[in-house]
Amino acid sequence: MKKRLIGAALAGLTLAGFAHAQSGQAQNGAQEHDDPRIHVAHLQPPRSGLSPLSDDAFKLSRWSMAETLIRLDADGTPTPFLATEWERLDTHTWRFVVRQNVRFHDGTALTPERVVASLTAAANAVPKPRILDGVEMTAEVEGDAVIVRTQADDPLVPNRLSSPQLAIMAERAYGDNGVIDPREAGTGPFVLTAINGVTSAHLDRFDDYWGERAKLSGIDADYVGDGTARGAALRTGRAQVVEAVPVSQAALIDADLIHEVPMPRTNTLYVNTERGPLADPALRAAVREAIDRAAIVRTVYEGRADEAQGLLGPALPWAAGMRQPVDHVAARAPEGTRITLGTFTDRAELPEVAVLVAQALTQAGFEVEQDVREYAHIEADALAGNFDLFILSRATVLDSGDPVSYMVSDFSCSGSFNISQLCDAGVDEALAKAAATEPGEARRQAIIEAEAAILATDAAIPMLHERVIQGETTAVANAERDPRERMLITEHTTLSE
């Protein structure tokens, strides 16, 4: 009873912010329109003042405020956005034609010069946007186009330019000392008019948008870290769209308001292939055969996850149709082999997953010792190969919308996040082939072949693919349910009275 009262109190306190945001609309520069405004409850507040060079860029993108040269379709294929067309001139050089008749929110024109200035600011930022880690990129104007050059051969340049961290902003956004203020500086259908610290933000429709005029007159965004409060906001209608409704809250909400979105995130059991008992491929095979994916999904995730068939899940819909059976070595009986299993507490479900994994392995004949700590206190040991097994929830598609970087990082001989300590010539060859292949069908095929090579080693045992629960009231139509979390409210989103 006490727990429920505390939760209700937290919800009441947090929801007060919604009422404050609504009453303060006029003070925050919102204009009066006949069309409705929509209220959104976000999981996390901005960490860098909504700078587009930080992870806050994804909020600007989800509000359809900031736009990039390229946009990715559902399969991760680059499509035109602020660039209408592009071509690869040589292995290091690309040419992007800039869309004409586009205005920034402050009324200034989008030009190739402004594109170059934005890309150059990103390339020179300290720290660099994550999408440019390890990438040396320059840009220059050529007529109505922009020439982008990279120091290394990089077939993913169009994918990189789709990252919200490389949004094109008006000159007014860029202040001294690298500070960027995104207010009235984007090109999207909504203009950011007010930033209220880590509490809320407000946007109005931009009537001079180059594309289709937005159906909504504006967006009021609140940051609601408490999951109980987000669930209550959806139930009461104080927010019409709610990010990341907790599983515990979903059971209390009308099923018509709940939408599960597959995420490009896989809960994986990493297996130490270099030393210890699991350096034996036959014992790694015994671990794989012992894992009960269905029990983990049913028990820990209450059915709100997908059993893994490979490293790449439903968020990459092309993967399942291209995947072929993997040849594994035969397992041998563990016969009491002692192994260590590690994971961390920062993601609440992982210790529960560890308990089920340990039970399954014990039943299969292993003796299992668990080590569960905060991530900051266990990461170094995991990367050093101090565990036989380690459970990790891992994003499989990083900012480029392509899984090769993740695979190289986690499973190549030179990988910087190689918890499995894997160094296999066949895997490296498959990864090199995938990395060098142009985006499209051939690259996807090479990626699936690399996945098969990794899975054949049993260095990674994918258990499940996570979903996020997005809440929407029945009045909402055409809100995006985007696995990559780049889109949410768009010019097509509507809200009925």
From TrEMBL:
Signal peptide bounds: 1-21
InterPro entries: Peptide/Ni-bd, SBP_5, SBP_5_dom
Highest taxon of source: Bacteria
Keywords of this entry: Signal
SUPFAM superfamilies: Periplasmic binding protein-like II (SSF53850)
Record flagged with keyword Metal-binding: no
Ranges where the Solute-binding protein family domain occurs: 78-416
Protein name: ABC transporter substrate-binding protein
Native source species: Halomonas dongshanensis
